[in-house]
Design goal:
The chain has 361 residues and is α/β, with parallel strands linked by helices. It contains 13 helices and 13 strands. It has 2 domains: 7-162 and 331-360, Glycogen Phosphorylase B (Rossmann fold), CATH 3.40.50; 180-329, 3-Layer(aba) Sandwich (Rossmann fold). It is elongated and about 65 Å long.
Amino acid sequence: MRTSAPITIFTPSFADADNTNAQNLTGKEIVARLDPELFRIMMIADAAPDSRLLERPNTEFVHWSKHGNTVGLLGRVLAARPAIYFFPRYGLLDRMFVKLRRYWPIRTALLTYVVMTMDDPAASDWARPSIERADHICANSKFVAKTISDRFGVDAEVIYDGVDKRFFYPCQEVPRAQLAILYAGSFQSRKRVELVIEQAARFSSVQFRIAGQGETETACRELARQYGCSNVTFLGHLSSEELGKQMREVDIFFFPSILEGHPQVLGQAAACGLPAIAMNTYRPDYVIHGKTGFLAESDAELAHYLDCLIANGSLRAAMSVAASQHMRNFDWDQIALQWANVFQEMADARQKLWWPRTQSA
């Protein structure tokens, strides 16, 4: 059954063009590809929205202010009566919506998309209300789905995040004067950026580039100074376009983070033809161990695999080709179609649920 009017969906995702948060990137990529005749979208804007979203008909941007707007925004959402509340985060707005929905007959269905492993107690506690009260649950990797099942006893449909091919694509082969290695991500304790600097101290003839910003940046800069790492460059925060350019200028992607969901940056690196070294703790599907990169079980293995890739240019070249080919399985256009089908099925189910009540009234 198809609904005649466009399906209204609210997502607390930011439409801002310069917002590179992975969850907001996901929201923007999905919305940009949804048929505006079938789907009316409400999302948040703090600054200038992505041009694709600005040009998209049937798209409403709800202004976000940093203080005191949660109640007003919730009222705006309730007044619009969307069919689906998609991709709740763990903020006050989302918690209020989930709680209100328990005690008030709100017809809006809750579609929860989980992008962090639930074997972390803190993450699972924050996510619990939106998982336990969801009408449908999706996860962004097989392993994330498994942790949801293990933790909450519920099944989650796996829908991956894709990669924006406007910015992330392989480079033409050019001779490099010096081998270069890139880390990209925030500076947080779980990201362990200090391990990048420790490897830079081992390979003084190799360039190490670090993209991102965050709470541990000052300590990491000081560590590089203590080690005398003149081969380390701190790039700061990069736009998607700038990050893609950096990825095409280096040879290896090194990502020692110990706690993730399914990090998009590994997919972005693979799409640029970069062999990646990452931890296996979160089982990233963007990396095929031994074929497109390496997944380490320990810090000693991280170092060992880096040694292998630095020393073996033929291995780097083979993994580069395999990585870019593997990322053809993560095409945003196809992924957006998966989401469109989920939205339509949920809207149909919602209509069937409420139609008898409307008739009896």
